[in-house]
Amino acid sequence: MPALSVYRSELKYIMSYADAAQLKIKLDAFLRTDEHAEDGSYRVKSLYYDTPCSRDFRDKINGLRTRQKLRLRIYSEEQPTAKLELKSKEGNYQHKISLEVSKDDARILANGIYTPLFQYRSEDAMRLYAMLTVDGYRPAVIVEYDRTAYSYPAFDVRLTFDSRVRSSEMNLNLYDTNLPWNPIFTDAVILEVKFNQNLPGFVQKILRPYRLTQTSFSKYCTGRPFAGSFIY
Questions:
Q1: What's the alpha-carbon Rg for the chain, to the nearest Å?
Q2: Are 55 and 67 in contact (CB under 8 A)?
Q3: Which end of the chain has fewer CB within 10 Å, C or N?
Q4: pLDDT digits (tens, 9 = 90+) for 110-123
Q5: How does strand 42-50 pair with strand 81-90?
Q6: Against a cut of 0.90, is the pTM above it?
Q7: From CA 150, how far away is CA 202, in angstroms rounded?
């Protein structure tokens, strides 16, 4: 299972539920919805890691232009694999390494043991192992939300609508189906626009009437209200 390494632009916006619903109707006519969605959406569940001094959390809160985050992501507790991902950001640009691992290995990684990465025998797997161990990364929070996604393969464009964001700081068992969720962002929708080079003109035209204002909203940082109160 080789790692996927890609460079992309990523823009984030906050929308009302009403505007998001209207925009989705327009996108339905031009873009393809995600093939894994059921009834239009699917669940995203991520375990985020951070250093003992919460370096990645601090970098984001302090507004550093260059920053990163590490996470282990699943879409269902029953799926046979998971994705260990490193997202590095430089302003609006991001580089993502995504390594697919087995469910058994994911369970071990979720407990802060990273030796299973040796068996994947790739440069990116070794890079992830080195970062996790040398910098002392440990599980920090689980964040879950509902996602509706659209894509335009010709330009590798992807638009996602994330809603009902919730987190768990006390129970960090990624495969627990009954976590004590804390609702952290429920009154609006997060729109993410991702593309490799240029955003096609027709997509820009669809988005223009909504007068969107770019935001640096972080699900990871917002998902740590308890820990965040002690970090500063």
A1: 18
A2: no
A3: C
A4: 999 999 999 998 99
A5: unpaired
A6: yes
A7: 14
